[in-house]
Amino acid sequence: MSHLTEAFNVFGMVVEGMEVIDSLTPRDPANIATPQPPGDTIISIKIEEE
After folding, report:
1. Whether pLDDT at 40 is above 80
2. Fewer CB in a 10 Å sphere around the end CB: N or C, the chain?
3. By C-alpha distance, which of 19, 29, 24 is closest to 41?
């Protein structure tokens, strides 16, 4: 999916590893008045279709 840019939204469902999602740095993109912490970088991801 390297051809996708931040102009695209990706939706999915976490079926395993929710503890990883819970450990991500919380950010509020709607709050532009307050500086936000840097976002986390996804190093790898596995996408499966059913």
Report:
1. yes
2. C
3. 24
pLDDT confidence of residue 4:
66
DSSP run (H or E) holding 18: helix 18-22
Token output for 39: 């976002």
pTM: 0.46
Burial 27-49 (b: 16+ CB within 10 A, else e): eeeeeeeeeeeeeeeeeeeeeee
- The C-alpha atoms of residue 31 and residue 36 are separated, in whole angstroms, by 8
Please name the residues in contact with 28: beta carbons below 8 A apart, sequence gap of 6 or more.
34, 36
